[in-house]
Amino acid sequence: MYHFNGLNTSLRSVGRFSPSNLSRQTRSLHLDGRNRLSSFWTPTQTGSPTHASQEDSHELLVRAGFLRQAHSGIFHLLPLGLRVQNKIEGLIDKHMFSVGATKVSLSSISSEELWQRSGRLEGRDSEFLRLQDRKGAKYLLSPTHEEEITEIVANAVKSYKDLPLRLYQVTRKYRDEARPRQGLLRGREFLMKDLYTFDVTEEQARQTYDQVRRAYSAFLDELNLPYLVANADSGSMGGNLSHEYHLASANGEDNIISCKQCDYSSNEELYSGFLGSQELNHIKPSTEQPLGSLLNSTSFISKDKTTLFTVITPSQGGPLNIHLLKKLHPDLDTSIEDPIKIWTALRSKSLPNLSETHIIDGRLAHLPLANPTGSTKTHSVSLTAPSETSTCPSCHRSGSLQTSTAIEIGHTFHLGTRYSLPLNAQVLSANNKLAPISMGCHGIGVSRLLAAAASLLMDQKGLNWPLKIAPFSATIVAAPAASAEDVAKVYDLLASASQQGTGTQSMAPLDVAIDDRDRPLGWKLNDADLIGYPFILVLGKAWKARGAVEVQCRRLGVKEEVQLESLVERLEEMGKKL
């Protein structure tokens, strides 16, 4: 038989179970209304990785305690990551309010029937995460919400007097990526802001589109990061007008072609291959350079395996522009690795309806390149990717184009009646006639933006957040010589300045955290660098000797002493650059 009193006595006699020792081994929660890291969960992983020079931004976000992977392409956000996400959402709310948008929250589950009606269900089966209820009804986890929001508006809005209408949400989306990669940049579950606009006429819808574009630029300006806006292909979304918004990054998957002399900017998928007059007729064969040495030829086969395409370009022209080729010849299959081998096998069987086509680059139009065994199609454009000598399609200046790698974080689409017609979203116009609503759809990848910002500013010490979306604007780190009262004094000064609205339009209110964890000063400073606070405020030797705060800002390369009475002003001054 066990006696409780005796057991209790025996446990207390073992030192490691005593209440006093237990209290020294657990976290201390200080509930005084101040942001304290002792009360905030920051599960950073200590120590430097063995491959620090190759550590990517996703690995760094995990090591710095912002997120953890749950499954392939699916992630949990931890407190630090959630603070960044919430700040991005707060900025989005601000700029959506500026265009008169109202926030909604739509279900993540969408009916397959709606997608069938819009015509978007077919051909995209592999993208959907599907589910079916006990009654056999079929649903999707929504990758986007055009169908659902159009259905809601179609049932609620009947008159032109109810428009314009602008509705947005920030919600989880789902896509069954074949190869999830780069963490939050290419996941199967992601957070997006999508704004849907509804106007009476096409003209009004295009005016709305321009307003949204300006709001997007204002939003990105607040982040103080280099970004690109490019003409884009609308793809499966529909419509004939769209723009992409990118953060310039060496780790990006998109190539943006822009002009150094004008405002031309385009995704490589839309690049037209424009040729300037100086690029025409300049290739001339000679005894030293026979025609064959001036040409490159690349073979492809058609999707139905009945036509062999031979693309002929200048030998100095660079790689082929595959996007343009597929646009000019939709039946051309670029995925076949050895088209000549396949074509030779087909020819040996003497199959009917086989043909050959030569596709000629516009720079070779003046040369005798007729196909003796088939047809010849000469285009008036360059069939190779743009180079430093290419001509801008907009201002027609040569040598002005440049290609930048970038991460797409937003997209605006003018949809017109792409969804309102099949889903019967129409209103009674001023002349008493039913007319389909003209729509727009405008997205920002919230989780992509978090990952892209991390990728863009990281260095070997850790992350480096833009001030407006940093988990905390600053952390206060004190040496043993500084008292708890000293730390509280600095914190309260900064908190008071924020509450009084001292921050300017370009400077976010200071959001400060005290690092009061029971750790050495050096450990705290390394941890602060890893997490990427814009400012680290050290109360150390300068504080003890002169009452000065050591301000560290790694992004600006600043490490200086600032007197307490000048601290707010100095942080605001530096904050304008962050």
Automatic annotation (TrEMBL):
This entry's Enzyme Commission designation comes to: 6.1.1.15
GO MF annotations, alphabetized: ATP binding; proline-tRNA ligase activity
GO cellular component assignments:
mitochondrion
Chief location category: cytoplasm
Q: Which N-terminal residues, if any, form the signal peptide?
A: none
- Keyword Aminoacyl-tRNA synthetase in the entry? The reply is yes
GO terms classed as biological process = prolyl-tRNA aminoacylation
A Pfam family (short name) is: HGTP_anticodon
In this chain the Aminoacyl-transfer RNA synthetases class-II family profile domain maps to 81-466
* The keyword Repeat belongs to this UniProt entry's keyword annotation: no
The record's subcellular location field reads: Cytoplasm
What enzyme category does the UniProt record give? ligase
User: Subunit notes for this chain?
Assistant: Homodimer.
Q: Which family does it belong to?
A: Belongs to the class-II aminoacyl-tRNA synthetase family.
**What's the protein here called?**
proline--tRNA ligase
Q: Name the species this protein comes from.
A: Cladosporium halotolerans
